[in-house]
Design a protein that fits this description.
2 copies of one chain form a homodimer.
Chain A: E1 5-12, E2 15-22, E3 25-29, E4 31-33, H1 46-52, E5 57-59, H2 61-66, H3 70-76, H4 79-83, E6 89-91, H5 95-101, E7 103-107, E8 112-115, E9 122-125, H6 127-137, E10 141-143, H7 155-176, E11 185-190, H8 196-209, E12 214-216, H9 225-238, E13 245-247, H10 253-260, E14 266-268, H11 271-277, E15 280-283, E16 286-289, H12 309-313, H13 316-324, H14 328-354, H15 358-371
Parallel strand pairs in A: 4-14, 5-6, 10-11, 11-12, 12-13, 13-14
Antiparallel strand pairs in A: 1-2, 2-3, 7-8, 8-9, 15-16
């Protein structure tokens, strides 16, 4: 098994195009990872994702650990085999979900004790157990356990959480290095709230551990967009050129373009899939709400320039009817459309970087999005 | 446009194989029509249905008339174009739904006044308006408006409803004959409750009107299976050899086999699709409930002999996990499986009839179904 590698092949301003080598295949960056919380990108199957051009998906360790549980997935050898997806999977550490979903959290240096949001059962996640779980999932890219803080947070709270996060990062890496992981990689996570000096300290400490990739965590947690963008820009600017930079949980299409412009390589976000289920569909001229009465008998596709299975065959009127009627097909078609939009956007950005015209692409994209349909 | 035609090409005992010619294509019988209530077979799109081998689907006039309404579908010229399905569609008359779903029904000779189950709005459906609606839907096979009675029903009630049904059948046909319907067909519906003499009278009266096809209505409304089977057998036995015989709303896999054995050609039923959404999956050794704890880590497909997209790729454990987690993909995969089971069953029956070994096929099928997995 070749070692994990990442190479930046092209730049355009600060925007980068690269290639990441993982045991289950290459991933071309910048890349968007559809979120497959419970072993399925909601409403889609693996063939759909391949058709859409998804290179890598994200699985949620917290959710999978609770349901179906590691005993079941362990029997299949990996999450990949359980869900019949043979391309790479990145799993988060569960940190974010424990802090946002679970009940009765108790954080100690040891780890985080909590009660399941599903059945109230008690659990303890430690940096080590989270590595073991991700190993059992067969994650191609695993993430360290981190302490996630709400927004806004006091400086002292953020500083204390950062100390825990660093302690856990070191222990995560120790556990990871106990075995040959066959070319899979463990990424570090930069926390520090919206405080520049804490972000700087976080990067400094993590760089000393020399992870093969780094994520900016703790963003898009309720802060104003400018604050998110400033913190991301600072963080990505401090990270090494030769390692992939991952913006966790980001973002809107405009955010992805602005973050690639600031040197980000990887993204995941529930927005395209969750918003699809709420009737919001992304188009090259901004998002539309398919429930809008003006689409009642509109024979046009949602986006005439889109090649997704929904736009190729169905009208806005039909998609509106399905959505209003809460038909299951609605969620599927809207999801196919939104993911197609996101994945196509990544392709377009990559091409613009390779051809060194990213700034012009970005300007044109943002102008059209602001224009509206 | 060639005229509607139906030819029985093979028989095996009373079981028949035939070909029905419709404007949008040929339909080989015996045939099962997946139910596409609101312009979608729930969770599936037209490509899925083509992949499964569906030759014709059913649309519900009552539901489509209320949502999205005829103004919207009218703008597209047909239900086919609205939902992007270019094979034949049979639409029911809405009679069954008005009587089972709508509020404040008032039946007069004129028609049936009711309030929508969605928003309480008032509507009147008449034999004529129901023909006009089905014409606007572009139905390849339309059905006459009939009065549906609950089970059990008093003889007098059934007799009175039958008189109304006959009056409406005649008026439906009059309206149908006002225009050239381009090779599309209007079928009559035999009612009469579970009363043999009323069923006989119904057939006699309808035959005088000379419809191109006949349905047995008012079955599977709560009566014991033997009573359903006896009434269906009586009805199909009275219908002409050279016209298609349609068992409306029927039935379980075992019912389809027993009804083909009694000379039925066409079926529709929500069972494969609705039960899929409730976790019941049909297999060659009987139905299973995928929620069952014994499938928790079962790596086998639901049915090793099944070629559907769910059985080709996924384990019982994965399908159970999706179902337990209420994942949208669960409903889709279960539906694909159950419809594949139904449509494959029809294919197998047809082949057995063509090869004149239907009795042996039936015995083998029913034995295996009773055996259990």
């Amino acid at each position: 098994m070749p070692a994990f590698s990442f190479h930046v092949t092209h730049t355009s301003g600060r925007a980068r195009a690269g290639v990441m080598k993982l045991p289950r295949g290459e991933v071309k960056t910048p890349v968007f990872m559809p979120v497959g919380t419970l072993g399925t990108v909601k409403s889609l199957d693996p063939d759909d994702l391949v058709s859409l051009g998804a290179q890598i998906i994200l699985g949620n360790t917290y959710h999978l650990y609770l349901r179906p549980g590691m005993e079941v997935i362990g029997k299949f050898g990996s999450l990949h085999r359980f869900m019949a997806w043979d391309r790479p999977i990145l799993t988060d550490s569960g940190g974010f979900q424990v802090f946002s979903l679970a009940d009765l959290k108790t954080i100690t240096d040891e780890g985080v004790a909590f009660r399941s949001h599903i059945d109230g059962s008690g659990h303890l996640l430690t940096p080590e157990s989270v590595i073991d779980i991700q190993d059992a999932l067969g994650s191609d890219i695993a993430m360290v356990l981190d302490e996630c803080i709400p927004y806004p947070a006091e400086y002292e709270r953020a500083e204390k959480a950062l100390a825990t996060t660093f302690l856990w990062a070191r222990r995560s890496q120790d556990r990871w290095r106990e075995a040959d992981r066959g070319g899979r990689a463990l990424f570090g996570i930069v926390q520090g709230g919206m405080f520049p000096d804490l972000r700087r300290r976080a990067v400094e400490e993590l760089l000393a551990l020399d992870f093969p990739g780094y994520a900016a965590g703790g963003l898009s947690v309720g802060e104003p967009r400018q604050e998110m963008m400033d913190t991301a820009e600072l963080t990505f600017g401090l990270l090494p050129e030769d390692k992939p930079r991952y913006g966790m949980g980001l973002g809107r299409p405009e955010d992805l373009v602005d973050l690639v412009d600031r040197g980000a390589d990887m993204f995941d976000c529930v927005m395209p899939t969750r918003n699809a289920r709420n009737g919001q569909m992304f188009t090259s001229r901004g998002a539309i709400n398919i429930a809008n009465a003006k689409y009642k008998d509109d024979p046009r596709p949602v986006d005439a320039s889109c090649t997704c299975p929904a736009c190729r065959r169905f009208s806005r009127a039909y998609l509106r009817h399905l959505y209003i009627s809460r038909e299951l097909l609605s969620y599927r078609l809207n999801t196919l459309h939104n993911l197609c939009f996101y994945l196509t956007l990544m392709d377009k950005m990559r091409r613009a970087i390779v051809e060194d015209r990213f700034a012009a692409f970005r300007r044109g994209f943002l102008d059209r999005m602001a224009e509206g349909g």
